[in-house]
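User: I'll paste a sequence; please echo it back and then give the predicted structure.

Assistant: Echoing your sequence first, then the prediction.
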Amino acid sequence: MGAIRVDGLRKSYGAVEAVAGMNFTVERGELYGFLGPNGAGKTTTIRTLTGQIHPDAGTVRVLETDPATEPLETRQKVGILPEQGSPPSFLTPREYLEFVGEVRDLSADRVADQTAAWAERLGFESKLETLHTDLSRGQQQKVMITQAFIHEPDVVFIDEPLANLDPLVQEQVKRFLVSYAAGDNAVFVSTHNIDVAEEICSRVGIVADGQLVTERSLEGDRDDSLLDLFLERVDGAAQRDVPNLGLTDRTET
């Protein structure tokens, strides 16, 4: 059985169907990229998979738990890095990570070891006693990455993992994600960055209008780029509103 399994997922907000019959499976050992334009249903899918909202229809399983009926058990098993998440402004990184450790029932020694390891890996050792309100968005993102992995979960859901990070830290995070998935874990990455997805993911799913329109393995040689496939399948899924930048084809005469 897959680490993540989605069959016929549907979710609407009033008259708007955000997810319209989504189907996919993610296995252990995969770094799965979830690509799509704004409004494609990516965030709604992640929120359903992590037990934050209930689906209208369909079956969802994460490590054989049902997020709809077992949301706390699901969230206890997984790591979550939201796109616009930020740690509490009135806590320091050390205080926040100690709180996360308590919620996840980790020993104080394990939290201390993980905090030290991640602070060294991402370069925020000197900020551990600084209030989050005084940290940059990049430093806060480092803390949020740490909280997602501090309990070494078997499945991690990540929305735009490289947001606000400088290029050096981005490279460290990319290498870590690849190695973490290779350790028999499932890493689910939602991103708009096609280049990053093509670089680190083992497989991707492309979504448009609430549906998975295609999947592709990124292992081995391919005839066309992921960008070409994305443009072909997303543009072919529906005629959507796209900004007119005046970049029309011109033929010289």
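The beta strands are 4-13, 16-26, 31-35, 57-62, 78-81, 155-159, 186-191, 203-208, 211-217. The first strand starts at residue 4 and ends at 13.
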